[in-house]
Amino acid sequence: MKKVIFYSRPHCSLCEEGILTLKLVQEEIRFKIEVLNIEEDDALHEKYMLMIPVVEKDGMMIQYGQLDYVTLYEALSVDEIS
């Protein structure tokens, strides 16, 4: 099963909306979500502090900031096996 990394931090309203959108996509496509709090890692905080939430798959950023269902769905369904 593929894994998606969701970079986030506490008290982030965009992150809360983003994880809900990602979970909606997860209802259609099988994948695991790993949530990483950027405040627990200085390097991640420096890299993503102005971009969160960030969704990454296979080391590539899919989307950041305002997440939308269609973009996430299309990016995550590319290699789905029925």
Helices and strands, with pairings:
Elements: E1 3-8, H1 13-26, E2 32-37, H2 42-48, E3 54-57, E4 60-64, H3 69-77
Essential attributes:
alpha+beta; four-stranded mixed β-sheet; 4 strands; 37% helix; 82 residues; globular
Can you walk me through this structure?
The mean pLDDT is 93. Strand 1 (3-8), helix 1 and strand 2 (32-37) form a beta-alpha-beta unit. A four-stranded mixed β-sheet has the order 2-1-3-4, sandwiched between helices. The chain is α+β, with helices and mostly antiparallel strands and 82 residues long. Helix 1 (13-26) packs across helix 3 (69-77). The longest helix is centred in the N-terminal third of the chain and has 14 residues, at 13-26. The chain starts with a strand and ends in a 5-residue tail after the last helix. Helices cover 37% and strands 26% of the residues. It is globular and about 30 Å long.
